[in-house]
């Protein structure tokens, strides 16, 4: 019992010593923070005195400048008024002389002399009356005194608003206003402290799926920075097609800066058309090379290694090679009931169906059967017979190719592919026509759809999905 008490006391003492050590460390940190507060306060007080002294000096200088302007205005106005007084005095003297002469003429008794004198005085009076407008003194009290005013109301309001400057509140990225093309993204944001913000800084990087944005932000090597933005929007150029990006906006003033919440934005897919040089002789391309149609009479094309050839290989490829990013396009199937849509390497054979080799992957329909095909292996998949709009999502960076019923937002199938080379979109039809819609943004309903490739593989091993291809026996009946 004594040994137990001794051991307990020793443990408690050890814990107490450890706790005291932690408290000492905490106290030391608090003392250090207090010292830093003292230093920062002294620095800000000195800055306050310096800034206020500068304001007082500016006011003193402006006072001198405005006082000089007032004196100059006074001298100019008094000089003008003095000239007007001199003119009035001169006019008054002339008028008084004429009045005196007229009165003396009226007192003349000699009739002949009166007529001669009166005629001369009358002419001078008539001339003086005719020029009376010139003799009116040019006095304008409003112009002399009321067009000069000292208005310091705006300055007083600014001075009364002087306060301790703080870093602006974090701006907010308006994702609903942001727009994108295949290689640009225009970011829009708002700020509650718009008038206190000196500039904005935009930072962005490719989104890798990492949800810990703090760790992602601290890995500064991969971030691109656009400084000194004055508006609340900016367009970033030269981005990868079909790629997700993370954006931050930093609001900056002299006191510091604050970051917005992160925003995930993505560029659109790489736009493409059907390449006429690859189209089979019995295919007709129209609608600016966005529509392909089976045409038995179209035999005018010359044979080239790039062109699909061979019996039944009625295909065409897109005019783009994709080696990065996430890309989405749709195929309007119309009334076609026999087609194949997918991707292939450039080296894939052109004289056989896509998916019959290891360099191509396709989703296909033959009448009422839907299949996926790669390396000569086929697997039935479920899809609606009313499928009219097929969505294709190629996520090159994450090694996947998936197909979707775009009208009903339903996932059909996903290939997991370890891409070794750039791929090109491929299309085949055996009846009717199809139309390509490319350069589309990735829809929300296919964003982040999990792959069920492993589940389908398990079903295939269990014999639930594996069947002989209807193409092996159905080519003639579907042709």
TrEMBL record:
This is Midline 2. Residues 170-270 form the Fibronectin type-III domain. Signal peptide: none annotated. The gene is mid2. Residues 252-445 form the B30.2/SPRY domain. Residues 106-165 form the COS domain. Residues 6-40 form a coiled coil. One of its GO terms (biological process) is protein localization to microtubule. It comes from the Eukaryota. The keyword Zinc does not apply. SMART domains: BBC, FN3, SPRY. GO terms for molecular function: microtubule binding; transferase activity. The lineage of its organism: Eukaryota, Metazoa, Chordata, Craniata, Vertebrata. Belongs to the TRIM/RBCC family. GO terms for cellular component: microtubule. Keywords: Coiled coil, Transferase, Ubl conjugation pathway.
